[in-house]
Amino acid sequence: MPDSLRDIAKMIDHSLLHPTLTDRELADGCALARRLDVASVCIKPYAVPLARAILAGSDVAVGTVIGFPHGNSRVEVKLAEIELALADGAVEIDAVINIGKALGGDWGYVSDEIGRLNALTVTGGLLKVIFETDYVTRDEDKIRLCEICSEHAVAFVKTSTGFGFVRRPDGLYSYAGATDHDLALMRRASAPSVQVKAAGGVRTLDHLLRVRALGVIRVGATATEAILTEAQRRGYR
Predict the structure, then answer these.
(1) Burial (CB count within 10 angstroms: exposed 0-12, middle 13-18, buried 19+), residue 13
(2) Are strands 173-174 and 166-167 parallel, antiparallel or unpaired?
(3) Residue 4 and residue 1: Cα distance in Å, rounded?
(4) Domains of the chain: which residue ranges?
C-alpha cells in the first residue's frame, strides 16, 4: 500500500488529451496538476510550451503523446513529433505503436519503430509505448510487444490511449482500457527495468490501488482530483 498522499499523487499522469479541451481548460488542468503535485501532465502536443511555463519550478513533469491516438503515422513523422516535443520542453513521451503492423505480425517493423523512437527520446526524456489493448487483444501479441520493449529498454509499456473505441454488439462504441488481466500479463512479460502504466478507465482510488498491487507504478487519469480527494478522506496525508 502507498504510505502517503504524495505516493498516490506521484502515480498519476494527469491526462489533458480530449479533443475538445480549450487552451483555458488545458491551463487550468496544468494548474490543478501543479497544486496536487502529481507525477506529470500528459498534454496535447501543441500545448507543451503552455504546460512547461505553468509547471516551471514544480516537481510535475511535462509529457505529451506521439502518433496519437491511432499510431498510423510514418516512423519519420513520429520522430519529428518527438523532436519537436523535446524541444518544447516535454520529458515524457507516450507513443502509440503501429497497431496494424502488430496485428499483422510484422515484428521487424514494430521493433525498428520502437527502437528508433526510444533512441531519440532518451536524448532528453523517457518513452512510454502504448499497445492499445482494445485493438491488440491476443495475449501472444502483447507478450511479443513486451519482449520488444524490453529488448530496446524503453521506460514504460502502457495499455491504452483511452480513445481505442470498439463497436459492441449493441452498436455503441466503448473501450475496456486497462484490465487487470492485461496489466498482470504486461508486468510478467516485461523486463524488471520496464515499468507498467495503466491507462483507460482508472477513475477511483480503489482502482488505482488495485492496479498498483499488480505492479503498476503509473496511471493515466482524468479523475485525478476525485482520486486524491478520496485518498485524503480515507486518511492519507
Answers:
(1) buried
(2) antiparallel
(3) 9
(4) 5-233
In tens, the pLDDT along 71-130 reads 999 999 999 999 999 999 999 999 999 999 999 999 999 999 999 999 999 999 999 999
Catalytic-labelled residue, pool 94, 134, 141, 182: 94
C-alpha span between 27 and 179 (Å, rounded): 31
Helices (H), the chain: 5-9, 23-36, 48-55, 75-88, 99-103, 107-121, 139-151, 180-189, 205-213, 224-233
Strand-pair partners of 2: none
Q: What is the pLDDT of residues 168-205, one digit of tens each?
A: 889 888 888 999 999 999 999 999 999 999 999 999 99
Provide the percentage of residues in the chain whose pLDDT is more than 90.
Answer: 94
**Would you say domain 5-233 falls under CATH 3.40.50.720?**
no
Per-residue DSSP letters for 184-227? HHHHHHS-TTSEEEEESS--SHHHHHHHHHTT--EEEES-HHHH
**CA 28 to each of CA 31, 48, 171, 194: distance values in angstroms, whole numbers, following the listed order:** 5, 14, 35, 32
* Residue 94 appears among annotated catalytic residues: yes
44 is an active site residue: no
Q: By CB neighbour count within 10 A (0-12 exposed, 13-18 middle, 19+ buried), where does 167 fall? A: exposed
**Dist CA 194 CA 186 (whole Å):** 10
> HSE (CB half, 13 Å, CA atoms) of 87?
7
Instruction: Work out the mean pLDDT of the chain and round it to a whole number.
Output: 97
pTM: 0.96
